[in-house]
Design goal:
The structure holds 3 protein chains of 3 kinds. Chain A is mainly α. Chain A is 85% helix and 0% strand. Chain A has one domain: Orthogonal Bundle (MetI-like fold). In chain A, helix 2 packs antiparallel against helix 8, helix 3 crosses helix 5 and helix 5 crosses helix 7. The longest helix of chain A is centred in the N-terminal third of the chain and has 34 residues. Chain B is mainly α. Chain B starts with a helix and ends with a helix. Chain B has one domain: MetI-like (MetI-like fold). Helix content of chain C is 42%, strand content 21%. Chain C has 2 domains: 149 residues, D-Maltodextrin-Binding Protein, domain 2, CATH 3.40.190.10; 91 residues, Periplasmic binding protein-like II (D-Maltodextrin-Binding Protein, domain 2, 3-Layer(aba) Sandwich). Chain C starts with a helix and ends with a helix. In chain C, strand 2 and strand 3 form a beta hairpin. Chain C has 11 helices and 15 strands. Chain C is globular. Chain C has a 5-stranded mixed beta sheet, sandwiched between helices. A 5-stranded mixed beta sheet of chain C has the order 11-10-12-9-13, with helices on both faces. A 3-stranded antiparallel beta sheet of chain C has the order 2-3-4. By secondary structure, chain C is an alpha/beta fold. The chains are: A mainly alpha, B mainly alpha, C alpha/beta. Chains in contact: A-B, A-C, B-C. Chain B: Belongs to the binding-protein-dependent transport system permease family. Chain B: It comes from Lactiplantibacillus plajomi. Chain B: InterPro entries: AA_ABC_transptr_permease_3TM (IPR010065), ArtM/GltK/GlnP/TcyL/YhdX-like (IPR043429), MetI-like (IPR000515), MetI-like_sf (IPR035906).
């Protein structure tokens, strides 16, 4: 195990970097896109609600790997040349955004509807009330689930390995094949994942307890 | 258009359905097994048995925080080092079960925690033992409370079986890859078809969970 | 359908038993101490690891769910030589990435999957004598500016390969400036080439010719720039089995079986002179 660590250190660090980069990009954009579709779902406009619902249901019910491969294989053929890292990260973003949309929607709906009415009665527009009153409260509720989504993101970013995205799992496969020491290679990479996900997951549990008080 | 007609020939569709069957097979076995094991682990984490609960908790946390692909590699490549040599189907089922049991253990534990502690006390006051109260009163309510989360975890399981294509499990995605690998005109038809197949199964399950949730509520 | 359901029930039962078994007992007899040849004789079956995504060598036939190709036919011929006419050859699909772990774990008895004999691999596994002489080459889109491996040695050039393939290690030496993208198998690598993810796909010429026959818009260029003798990989310490495989290989080469199989798969491949490869 030590030999793998020392011998392939630069590959491992590069992999860690790409995994973190992809997860962070996907977190930022999937939160934005997810929130957008969550708002669609609670709008008075029926068409918007349907659009929100369809988006969420489609991407929640198709495997991430299929979505990522779609972007890796089909988009470059017909739309734009994107590399494996980009394709994988886009897939990750879209897939995660549908879960975040579901979480944020539940958060918005758990905010007392009287808040919205009160804000409107005080002369705020719908959008003002939504962005200044409802969303901030909704986000307080959804912070722990969002944190868990980030942990999932880090784990799920391993699909980048299927599209040559240079992430940790890609490096793991490469190192395992080069060193022919399969189990130790995967153990080392498992350790790298745990270094990111385990502290996050304990922190999230701590946060949940705090908020529950 | 001709591409689509050719792509959906009976030969290809049959090949896809064979893959779909493997996906279903892996999913059903893993769902049943991981529900049982996950429940046991979840309860073990909740009832504080000295050392045992701590060890279970630690192992569950490790597994939960690893990517599933790694666990698939461990069961397929690693278990033989311990003297047990699973075939590919079995290795995948084992990996899915290990991973999903850990995920479910956490869900069920938090479900039990969410059940009002008065319930337990009430049951004990009525002469039930701790185990009886846990089994007859607290556990069923915890499951009821967590049904939507549990089902969405099962949906993830079904979707995640596609990862096993990396060890050449002949499941749905793998069979689609074989077909479009041999004729690239079939890439888009294949992607659409398998997306549809996954969608139908997973969506049906999520509708079922909503119905179940309403019935029980 | 009923058959499939019973299989499902059986799996469930098996799962329960194995879980108990796993917890009940730990270590079993180490694989390296078992004699593969004896076991295979007893079960009348040799389990081979073959590719399922490589035209000409081992390709899944969607019509009947069987893997077909040169490697598969050679494996069948060797099986018959070792076990007799009724000997069964069982095939497990592998990729360049999964084949060595599976062999070392004992899931398969031997690898016959376009595997080059290299000194690094010989530290881990034993090889039979070479049964096919390949050489690494390049597959590009027709009309591509890439004509040889030299054209790839530029910063920013991406070359596609397969994880675990010797060709990936080679290209890193031959074109150090190029960036190598490793995919999980040849079908994925070919799809990526079509999607424009790399300027060329590199691996052994035999595999590339197979891809070129499947995909008319693509051609093999630049000749071969390495020598890649394919061997059958066998676990270390399995000397009797290795001897039988080598003997069987020599027999099928002597009696013309080898040449017949070679002609069957490579007789009509443009750019490949099967007579030169005949033995």
């Amino acid at each position: 195990m030590i030999t793998i660590l020392t011998h392939y250190w630069s590959e491992l660090v590069q992999g860690l970097g790409y995994t973190l980069l992809s997860s962070l990009i996907a977190l930022i954009f999937s939160t934005m896109i997810g929130t957008m579709f969550a708002i669609f779902e609670v709008l008075p406009n029926r068409l918007m609600r349907v659009i929100g619902r369809v988006y969420i249901e489609i991407f929640r019910n198709i495997p991430l790997l299929v979505i990522a491969m779609f972007f890796y294989v089909i988009i470059p053929l017909y739309v734009a040349k994107i590399d494996g890292f980009t394709a994988g990260t886009i897939g990750l973003t879209i897939y995660t955004s549908s879960f975040i949309a579901e979480t944020v929607r539940a958060g918005i709906q758990s905010v007392d509807p009287g808040q919205m009415e009160g804000a409107r009665a005080n002369g705020m527009t719908y959008w003002q009330a939504m962005s200044k009153i409802v969303l901030p409260q909704a986000f307080k509720i959804v912070i722990p689930p969002l944190g868990n989504q980030f942990i999932n993101l880090v784990k799920n970013s391993s699909v980048l390995a299927f599209v040559a995205g240079f992430d940790l799992m890609y490096q793991a496969n490469s190192i395992a094949s080069l060193s022919l020491d399969t189990i130790n290679s995967y153990m080392v990479v498992g350790g790298f994942y745990l270094v990111i996900t385990l502290p996050l997951s304990y922190y999230m549990r701590h946060l949940e307890k705090q908020l529950a008080k | 258009m001709q591409n689509f007609i050719d792509a959906y020939s009976w030969v290809n569709l049959r090949f896809l359905l064979e893959g779909l069957w493997v996906t279903v097979e892996v999913s059903v076995v893993s769902i049943i097994a991981s529900f049982i094991i996950g429940s046991v682990l979840g309860v073990l984490r909740y009832v504080k048995i000295k050392y045992l609960s701590a060890v279970v908790g630690f192992v569950v946390d490790i597994i939960r925080n690893l990517p599933l692909i790694l666990i698939i590699f461990f069961t397929y490549f690693g278990l033989p080092h311990l003297g047990f040599k699973p075939g590919i189907l079995f290795a995948t089922i084992l990996a899915m079960t290990i991973f999903e049991s850990a995920m479910l253990a956490e869900i069920i534990r938090s479900g039990i925690l969410a059940v009002d502690s008065g319930q337990m006390e009430g049951a004990r006051a009525n002469g039930m033992t701790y185990v009886q109260a846990l089994w007859h009163i607290v556990f069923p309510q915890a499951i009821k409370k967590t049904i939507p989360t549990i089902v969405s975890q099962f949906i993830s399981l079904i979707k995640d079986t596609s990862l096993a294509t990396i060890i050449v499990l002949p499941e749905l995605l793998n069979h689609a890859q074989i077909i479009y690998g041999q004729n690239s005109a079939y890439i888009i038809p294949m992607f659409l078809m398998i997306a549809l197949m996954y969608f139908i199964i997973c969506y049906a399950l999520s509708v079922l969970s909503r119905v179940l949730d309403k019935r029980l509520a | 359908m009923i058959k499939k359901v019973t299989r499902l029930v059986r799996l469930l039962a098996l799962f329960g038993i194995v879980t108990v078994f796993l917890t009940a007992c730990g270590q079993r007899q180490s694989l390296s101490k078992q004699d593969v040849l004896q076991n295979d004789r007893a079960s009348n079956t040799i389990t081979w690891g073959v590719k399922a995504d490589t035209k000409l060598f081992g390709l899944m036939d969607v019509k009947d769910n069987q893997v077909k190709g040169f490697d598969v036919d050679i494996a069948k011929a060797i099986t018959k030589r070792i076990l007799g006419e009724n000997g069964r050859a069982k095939f497990v699909q592998v990729t360049s990435q999964t084949r060595i772990p599976l062999l070392k774990n004992g899931n398969i008895d031997a690898i016959i999957a376009t595997m080059t004999i290299t000194p690094e691999r010989e530290k881990q596994v034993d090889f039979s004598k070479s049964y096919f002489d390949a050489g690494q080459s390049l597959l590009v889109k027709k009309g591509s500016p890439v004509k040889s491996v030299k054209d790839l040695d530029k910063a920013g050039t991406k070359v596609l390969g397969v994880t675990g393939a010797n060709s990936v290690a080679n290209i890193k030496k031959s074109a150090p400036k190029a960036r190598v993208l490793e995919l999980s198998d040849y079908a994925q690598a070919m799809t990526a080439l079509k999607s424009g993810q790399g300027a060329a796909l590199t691996t052994d010429n035999g595999i590339l010719y197979g891809m070129a026959t499947q995909n008319p818009g693509y051609e093999v260029v630049g000749g071969t720039f390495t020598k890649e003798p394919y061997g059958i990989a066998i676990n270390k310490g399995q000397t009797p089995f290795k001897k039988s495989v080598n003997q069987a290989l020599a027999e099928i080469e002597a009696d013309g079986t080898y040449n017949r199989i070679l002609k069957k798969w490579f007789g009509n491949v443009a750019g490949f002179d099967y007579k030169e490869a005949a033995r």
